[in-house]
Every structure is written in C-alpha cells, then in structure tokens.
Design brief:
The complex is a heterodimer. Chain A is built from 6 helices and no strands. By secondary structure, chain A is an all-alpha fold. In chain A, helix 2 packs across helix 3 and helix 5 runs antiparallel to helix 6. Chain B has one domain. Helices cover about 85% and strands about 0% of the residues of chain B. Chain B contains 3 helices and no strands. The N and C termini of chain B lie far apart (about 180 Å). The chains are: A mainly alpha, B mainly alpha. At the A-B interface, helix 1, helix 2, helix 3 and helix 4 of A face helix 1 and helix 2 of B.
C-alpha cells in the first residue's frame, strides 16, 4: 500500500481517495498525522521505523546540534549557539527552582529532557512536510501518564499518608472539606487527561487549520492569495503556540512535582 | 490500496483521526520510549554537566576577577597611603633641614655681626683716641701759633710791654674761654 505523506490538496490525487468528493475541492487536513512505515512495506509493527521514529530522531539530532555541539567550546564568553543552550538551561533551571523549590532541582535532568523533547518535536513539526510527533495523543498521553505516575509515586514515597493532605484543604471550613476533597481528587486524576490533550490537541488543531487553508488555496486559483495570507498568519500563531505548549507542559509538570514534594497547601 | 493491513483498515474506518488509530500506538510508544531514553542520556550525561561546568567556571572566573580587583584596589590604596606617608616624612625632613640650616646660618650671621661690631667698636675707639691726640696736638699748635702771633703782634704794636709770662697767661685764659 502506498500512502504518501505529502498533503493531498492537489486535485490530481482524487483518484487515490475514492471516498472523497471528486470535485477540485479536496482537503485532507488529517492525513498529515498518519503514521506509516518509513521504508515502505505494509505492516507497522511496534518496532518498524516509522515517520514518528524519524521525527523523534530528528529532534534528538537537533538537540545534539544545538545544545551539545553548540556548547562544545565551553567558552567563558559564549558563542551564539552556546548562548541558546545556556538560555534554555537557565530558563528550565529557574523554572524548576521557582515552582518546585530547591528539592525540585533533583529532577532537573528528567524535566529538561521532557521540555527539550516536546519543544524540539513541536518546532520541527512546523517544518514544511514535517510530521508533528506531539500531535498524537499516544505520545502526549504516555508522557502525561508517565509524569502523573512518577509524581504520584514520588509523593507517596516521600510523604506517606501526608500526601493525602493535598486533597484535604485545611484552610477551608470543616464542613466544606469533604466536598472539596472529592473535587480535588477528581481534578487530580483528570490531570493526565488535560495535560496530554492540551498539548496533543493544540498541535493537531493548528496543523489541521493550516492544512485546511492550504486546501482552499489549492482550489481557489488566483484567489488563493487570501488563504495563503491566512496560512502565514496561522503559521506565525502556531510558531508561538508550539513553544508555549512545550512550556505549559513543562511548567505543569513542575507544578505537579511541587505538589508531590510539598503536599501541604 | 490492496493488502488489508491493520493500518490501512483502521485508517479507512477512521479517516478523520489518525490519532485514534490504536494499531499505531505500540509503534509510537516504542519509539517514544527509545528516543526519550536516548535524549535523557544525552541531556543528563553530556549537556547538563557541561553546562553546569561552564556556568560554574564563569562564576568562578567572575568572582576571582572581582576578588583580584579588590585585592589590587587594596594594594593601590596601600601604595597611596605609603606614598602619602613618605611625602609627609620628606616634607617634615625638609622642614627640619631647613630649620637647622636657618639656625646655623643665623648663628653664623650673629657671630659675624658680633665680630663686625666688635671690630667697628675697636676701630671707632682707636679713631677716637687718634682724634683726641690730633685735637690735643691741634690745640697745642693753636696755642703756640697764638702765642707766637700774639708775642709778634705785641712786639710789633708796643715792644715796651713785652712780657712773655703775662701774654701766655692771657692767651691761655682766652683759649679756655
């Protein structure tokens, strides 16, 4: 089976998609998210190198180029790339310290990895013909569940039963506390869901919107100027969103970590 | 679109949302875990220690430079104080030498003045003595001249009354008068 990765806005692709309308108006905004084996073949086993593997690998390469190679000089007065590496380092470091306190710095490596993974896959996803790994709920879900489980286990191991204080708000009037506890518990367990869908949804929606406008552009001939302008605008917005969503995911991780480290309100 | 792989089938079932194609989950999760672990190793083993080292080095260099600057400043201040002390010392030394020289010169001058005064006094005394002698001689000469002139005048005017003794006494009395 041949499943092109390319956007199928061109009218000539209609034949391949018999189910779609046969007019020139042929938009497949979701096709960019399809997972397929990289080197042809039909089956997608769990180990098959796929486009998601490729773009995760590219993110790693980008991290190596920018952060590892960039800081290779270990210069006292940093070069430009080393400055970027230092800014990312300092930014994440102070974010963890501000939110989760000094104890949170023990988890600096894992949070930095999380931030860099999401940031770089997000940004690379904006590359034309790119694939956005984080637009998949499978990826963001695993990340969010990983954060949720590790933070919860950490909280229980560190604080024992005191961890339950997180749900028992001692500032509230006694009568309200059980109600609040129920709300707190529900919101606690909803965390991984919102955490993962926020990132995945944002990525998917933005890229789908761009592709929809691109579909309009393909169908409108000269009038395509308007959707192209819209694409440009949305692309600018998306450039902001991919960074902000990576930041939001990381900062929420820090907040959850802080809850585990200091469960008292 | 021939062979009915799971991917194709599920994709057909849910053409809108590849995200909900559960058959791709194992693949995505596997690669996610692999790349996440690789990235973690790179970041925690290489990037973070390097960055921490770089930042620490920079901090050390900066604080070292600041310490050195403080040290040098202190040294400069010490040197300035030493300079001022030396200057003051030299000044007082100069004053002392000047005073000494002044007093020595004053003494010399005083001695010289005293000597000169003594000499002047001696000379003036001598001169006075000589003047006295001269005056005495002059007076004597005047008396002699007066005597001789008077005796001559008397002899000429009235030779009969030529009394030497009386004339001398009269002249002496007149000269005293």
């Amino acid at each position: 089976m041949k499943r092109p990765i390319r956007p199928k806005i061109e009218g000539c692709n209609v034949a391949e998609h018999g189910t779609e309308e046969a007019s020139g108006f042929n938009i497949h905004p979701m096709e960019q998210f399809e997972i397929h084996p990289l080197f042809g073949g039909d089956t997608l086993n769990w180990y098959t190198p796929s486009n998601t593997a490729l773009w995760m690998g590219l993110a790693i390469v980008a991290v190596i180029l920018l952060l590892v190679m960039g800081s290779r000089g270990r210069a006292l007065v940093p070069s430009r790339t080393q400055s970027i590496a230092e800014i990312l380092y300092g930014f994440t470091h102070s974010m963890i310290e501000d939110i989760a306190g000094k104890e949170g710095l023990k988890y600096f490596p894992i949070i930095m990895t999380l931030f860099m993974f999401i940031l770089f896959t997000n940004v690379l996803g904006l590359w034309p013909y790119g694939f956005t790994v984080t637009s998949h709920i499978a990826v963001t879900g695993v990340l969010a569940i990983g954060v949720f489980l590790s933070v919860t286990l950490l909280g229980i191991f560190r604080n024992g039963t005191k961890f339950l204080k997180l749900f028992w708000i001692s500032e509230a009037p006694l009568a309200l506390r059980p109600v609040l506890a129920i709300i707190e518990i529900i919101s606690y367990f909803v965390r991984p869901v919102s955490h993962s869908i926020r990132l995945g949804g944002n990525m998917m929606a933005g890229h789908a919107v761009i592709k929809v406008f691109a579909g309009f552009a393909g169908a409108m001939g000269l009038g395509a100027v308007a959707p192209i302008l819209a694409i440009t605008a949305v692309y600018g917005l998306e450039s902001l969103v991919v960074v902000i969503q990576a930041y939001v995911f990381t900062i929420l991780t820090c907040v959850y970590l802080n809850d585990a480290l200091h469960p008292g309100h | 679109m021939a062979s009915g792989t799971e991917v194709a089938e599920v994709a057909k079932e849910a053409p809108g949302m590849p995200q909900l194609d559960f058959s791709t989950y194992p693949n995505q999760i596997f690669w996610l875990v692999v790349s996440f672990v690789v990235l973690y190793i790179i970041i925690s083993r290489i990037f973070l220690p390097r960055m921490a080292g770089v930042l620490e080095d920079r901090q050390n260099t900066i604080s070292g430079d600041i310490n050195m600057a403080a040290e040098l400043k202190q040294k400069a201040e010490e040197a300035e104080a030493a300079y001022h002390a030396a200057l003051a010392e030299a000044r007082s030394e100069a004053h002392r030498i000047a005073d000494e020289a002044k007093s020595v010169i004053k003494k010399d001058v005083e001695a010289a003045m005293a000597k000169a005064e003594a000499e002047i006094a001696a000379k003036s005394a001598e001169s006075e003595a000589r003047i006295k002698v001269i005056r005495k001689n002059a007076l004597k000469s005047i008396e002699e001249v007066a005597n001789s002139v008077a005796s001559d005048v008397v002899a000429a005017v009235m030779p009969s009354v030529a009394d030497e003794k009386a004339l001398k006494a009269a002249i002496a009395a007149r000269l005293k008068g």
